[in-house]
């Protein structure tokens, strides 16, 4: 793989000075952001706008996906104060739309679903009440775990399929493509009005036809919003980028998804939580 970055990737520069204030709030509450842990290329832009995606249940994952830089191993016990600390951080940051994700916690009987629900309830108690988006693990296909999160009432339920079926054994070995699709089906079945969302990375070795097939599978689950972004290798330890998709290819896959009835946001730097509030507003406008 040629490591030379195309011009549309080189144009994005990380402004480290923009990260300080949000990191300070996180440190006071012993909180984490997936933005920093996963080395998201958008984190300076989002942090400078006062937004961040909270990473709950610690910063150590029980899985070791080959594209992810989050530490993996044996996580610490859950912090029962985390829901309240997160709510206080949301107030301090003045957030109107809150995105909450987590590491995988396969060590817990419910994968951490009860903790997710507690965080959602803590956010619902705030005044004014922010909209809440969750980005959950697959819970190993555990229907009761998915339903516990749905019943807590997030405004958006997101679960990323991440890649095409063929590449799961190579880059997402501890997950299952069918688990991901089942999570989305369960959300739609449990709460038909809830905004259901997913995301795909490209540049891991997939073919365009496989991405289009994945979009068709997502549409069949009742998923409404899909983000498609370029995989960027976080460090030298993760799997290499297979190729960089061009802006024109992203535009084409976005058009294909929309023809399937999906609200697709695609581009080199698109991530599942990037401008998440805007995606929610677009879905709301389309429904009216």
Provide a quick synopsis of the model.
The protein has 288 residues and is an alpha/beta fold. 39% of the residues lie in helices and 15% in strands.
Q: Would you mind describing this structure in some detail?
A:
The protein is an alpha/beta fold and 288 residues long. 39% of the residues lie in helices and 15% in strands. Helix 5 (82-93) crosses helix 6 and helix 9 runs parallel beside helix 10. The longest helix is centred in the middle third of the chain and has 14 residues, at 177-190.
Helix/strand order: HHEHHEEEHEHEHEHHEHEHEH
Q: Gyration radius, to the nearest Å?
A: 18 Å
Query: Helix tally?
Result: 12
Summing up helix and strand content along with how strands pair, one would put the structural category as alpha/beta
Low-confidence stretches: 13-23, 33-50
Note the main sheet: 8 strands, mixed
CATH fold name: TIM Barrel
Instruction: Classify the helix fraction into a percent range.
Output: 25-40%
Instruction: Report, as a whole number of angstroms, the end-to-end distance.
Output: 46 Å
Taken together, the total number of domains comes to 1
* Name of the top-level CATH class: Alpha Beta
CATH homologous superfamily caption: Aldolase class I
Query: What portion of residues belong to β-strands?
Result: 5-15%
Do you know the CATH architecture?
Alpha-Beta Barrel
The total count of strands amounts to: 10
What best-fitting shape do the alpha-carbon axes yield?
A: globular
> In which order are the strands of the major sheet placed?
1-2-5-6-7-8-9-10
Question: Could you tell me the mean pLDDT?
Answer: 84
């Amino acid at each position: 793989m040629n490591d030379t970055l195309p011009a549309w990737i080189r144009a994005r520069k990380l402004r480290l000075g923009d990260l300080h204030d949000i990191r300070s709030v996180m440190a006071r509450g012993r909180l984490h952001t997936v933005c920093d842990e996963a080395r998201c290329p958008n984190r300076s832009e989002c942090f400078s706008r006062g937004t961040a995606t909270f990473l709950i249940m610690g910063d150590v994952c029980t899985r070791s996906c080959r594209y992810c830089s989050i530490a993996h191993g044996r996580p610490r016990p859950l912090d029962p104060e985390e829901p309240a600390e997160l709510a206080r951080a949301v107030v301090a940051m003045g957030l109107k739309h809150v995105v909450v994700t987590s590491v995988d916690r396969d060590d817990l009987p419910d994968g951490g679903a009860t903790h997710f629900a507690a965080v959602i309830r803590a956010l619902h108690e705030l005044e004014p009440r922010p909209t809440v988006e969750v980005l959950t693990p697959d819970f190993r296909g555990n229907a009761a775990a998915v339903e516990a999160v749905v019943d807590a009432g997030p405004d958006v339920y997101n679960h990323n399929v991440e890649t095409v079926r063929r590449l799961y054994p190579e880059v997402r070995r501890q997950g299952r493509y069918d688990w991901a699709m089942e999570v989305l089906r369960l959300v739609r079945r449990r709460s038909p009005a809830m905004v259901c969302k997913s995301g795909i990375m490209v540049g891991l070795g997939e073919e365009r036809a496989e991405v289009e097939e994945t979009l068709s599978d997502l549409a069949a689950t009742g998923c409404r919003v899909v983000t498609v972004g370029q995989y960027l290798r976080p460090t030298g330890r993760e799997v290499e980028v297979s190729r960089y998709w061009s802006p024109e290819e992203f535009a084409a896959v976005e058009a294909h998804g929309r023809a399937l009835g999906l609200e697709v946001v695609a581009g080199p730097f698109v991530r599942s939580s990037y401008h998440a509030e805007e995606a929610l507003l677009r879905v709301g406008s389309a429904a009216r």
